[in-house]
Design goal:
With 429 residues, the chain is mainly alpha-helical. Helix content is 45%, strand content 11%. Strands 1-2-3 form a 3-stranded antiparallel β-sheet. It has a 3-stranded antiparallel β-sheet with strand order 6-9-10, with no helix packed on it. The chain is globular and about 55 Å long. Bound molecules: 1-deoxymannojirimycin. Keywords: Calcium, Disulfide bond, Glycoprotein, Glycosidase, Golgi apparatus, Hydrolase, Membrane, Metal-binding, Signal-anchor, Transmembrane, Transmembrane helix. It is found in: Golgi apparatus membrane. Its cofactor is Ca(2+).
Length: 429
């Protein structure tokens, strides 16, 4: 077992913890017991490296919380809370907006060097803590976790937003935006996701999250959503008013998110959001269908007559990302249109053909080449997300029902807090 990941601060077993709930769900009982034994005996928290607050939260805390909720095994609850406590120094900033990196040894924090020369926190990072931190408070009785994320919400609620949009970089010192770049892909993505999911996880009591989500979505639609000459709907990136007609693979989760949120929109917008979700998901499928491997590139453009294809080899790779099949799963649950299972099956076949290796699955360097070009890495989110969403796509709707569970941005299911409103428990799958 190696630590391997630079973002993990010396924690080992990222793949084990990220895949616990997938193993459990798929009834791989022996493998699950082996993984649980590893968590009990070998998952040590007394490490001293520098960790990413965001990655440790979504993969480790999310993975442990889901494993606890699915099984009731105390070891997962206890380790999730202890690890959560180790993340708290990231919030020691003048605004309470956490910095991206926490030093497990010294308890100091810093921003990523690449984030506006180390001056900024990233929207998708500090905006994707809410679900897990509320559960940490619920399971520990310690209010500190909930207080931290409520403060983040307050800062974001009160700050001026250009055209109602949320830029990607914010100073944790001054609380001001550091530039005006907006993305529903990398750097922005899961912030929007956590707004609608906070609303759903609160059993539809967190009105603030609801309002912020629909307001943000309206601004995105007004300023970022476009239709290509060939009729493909996409979400562009916004740089202070200028658009990059580009969509990242990461942004393809938004079809699923918009579908998930459609039901609680104003009545006159519901059908519209369902259609928008279907169109975006169709575009993301096109990015797969237009490649030689039938897997999609990291980013695709809508420029000079070329649509839904990467325009540079540096953006032609596929690293086993989940976002496209994630949207198929949500659209399937919403519509039961068999096209989503067909598209999901195309992805399964392509993964088998181009990504399966002797030791597992690997990313590929060029989706436009049929010659094997493995990158020799199996990202942890392949087991946490890609395989889980595919499995759910071909399962009955009551397997982790969307009424009772929300998925964190790493696809770890967390129970809806029904006790707030109706007295129903979170339930087991
Ligand atoms: C995952 O770690 C999470 O989904 C995150 O929000 C962004 N993307 C990767 C997988 O692509």
């Amino acid at each position: 077992m190696r630590s391997g990941y630079t973002w993990a601060g010396g924690l080992s077993g990222a793949t084990v913890i990220d895949s616990l709930d997938t193993l459990y769900l798929m009834e791989l009982k022996e493998e699950f017991q082996e993984a649980k034994a590893w968590v009990e005996e070998s998952f040590h928290l007394n490490v001293s490296g520098e960790a990413s607050l965001f990655e440790v939260n979504i993969r480790y805390i999310g993975g442990l919380l889901s494993a606890f909720y699915l099984t009731g095994d105390e070891v997962f609850r206890i380790k999730a809370i202890k690890l959560g406590e180790k993340l708290l120094p990231a919030f020691d900033t003048p605004t309470g907006i956490p910095k991206g990196v926490v030093n497990f040894k010294s308890g100091s924090n810093r921003s990523w060097g690449w984030a506006m020369a180390g001056s900024s926190s990233i929207l998708a990072e500090f905006g994707s803590l809410h679900l897990e931190f509320l559960h940490l408070t619920q399971l520990s009785g310690n209010q500190v976790f909930a207080e931290k994320v409520r403060n983040i919400r307050k800062v974001l609620r009160e700050i001026d937003k250009p055209f109602g949009l949320y830029p990607n970089f914010l100073s944790p010192v001054s609380g001001n935006w550091m530039q005006h770049h907006v993305s529903v892909g990398g750097l922005g993505d899961s912030f929007y996701e956590y707004l609608i999911k906070s609303w759903l996880m609160s059993a539809k009591t967190d009105m603030e999250a609801k309002d912020m989500y629909y307001e943000a979505l309206e601004a995105i639609e007004t300023h970022l959503v476009n239709v290509s000459p060939g009729g493909l709907t996409y979400i562009a990136e916004w740089r202070g008013g200028i658009l990059d007609h580009k969509m990242g693979h990461l942004a393809c989760f938004s079809g699923g998110m918009i579908a998930l949120g459609a039901e609680d929109a104003k009545e006159e917008k519901r059908a519209h959001y369902r259609e928008l979700a279907a169109q975006i998901t169709k575009t993301c499928h096109e990015s797969y269908a237009r490649s030689d491997t039938k897997l999609g590139p990291e980013a695709f453009w809508f420029n000079s007559g070329r649509e839904a294809v990467a325009t540079q080899t540096s953006e032609s790779y596929y690293i086993l990302r989940p976002e496209v099949v994630e949207s198929y799963m949500y659209l399937w649950r919403q519509t039961h249109d068999p096209i989503y299972r067909e598209w999901g099956w195309e992805a399964v076949m392509a993964l088998e053909k181009y990504c399966r290796t002797e030791a597992g699955f690997s990313g590929i360097q060029d989706v436009y080449s049929k010659v094997p070009n493995h990158d020799n890495r199996q990202q942890t989110f392949f087991l946490a997300e890609t395989l889980k969403y595919l499995y759910l796509l071909f399962s009955e709707d009551d397997m982790l029902s969307l009424e009772d569970w929300v998925f964190n941005t790493e696809a770890h299911p967390l129970p809806v807090n029904h006790s707030d409103s109706s007295g129903r428990g979170g339930g087991r799958p």
